[in-house]
Specification:
The structure is a single chain. With 128 residues, the chain is an all-beta fold. The protein is 0% helix and 49% strand. The strands form 2 sheets. Strands 2, 4, 5, 6, 9, 10 and 11 form a 7-stranded mixed sheet that branches. The protein starts with a strand and ends with a strand.
């Protein structure tokens, strides 16, 4: 199991960019698929993007394809979410998640309660 801490959230204008970071602690970070989820007020938490433990495979929700990019640096125990062309609909609390030995695509279908580790979230607000 790993512990996750998100950072980089804040305010952005529509069309702008933000970069989120998720710092992980643990000896086996490189064996975990990593993902980003978000939860808007009054909405359920939803999948955004995921990356395999090797970094070779990525998977995105249709709503963010072409705008968001997930990456990881296993040497730094960190996963990133580069968000560009932001829309007001992207406003949400963004959560980092980790699941050991899972494929990137699996992060988009697994029940949320089954995910091994969650961060505490970071707020992203996009003004129109």
């Amino acid at each position: 199991q790993v512990q996750l801490v998100e950072s980089g959230g804040g305010l952005a204008q529509a069309g702008g960019s933000l970069r989120l970071s998720c710092a992980a602690s643990g000896r086996t970070f490189s064996t975990y698929a990593m993902g980003w989820f978000r939860q808007a007020p009054g909405k359920e938490r939803e999948f955004v993007a995921a990356i395999s433990w090797s970094g070779g495979t990525t998977y995105y929700a249709d709503s963010v394809k072409g705008r968001f990019t997930i990456s990881r640096d296993n040497a730094k125990n960190t996963v990133y979410l580069q968000m560009s062309s932001l829309k007001p609909e992207d406003t949400a609390v963004y959560y980092c998640a980790a699941d050991r030995y899972r494929a990137a695509q699996g992060m988009g279908t697994i029940p949320l309660a089954a995910i091994d580790s969650w961060g505490q979230g970071t707020q992203v607000t996009v003004s129109s």
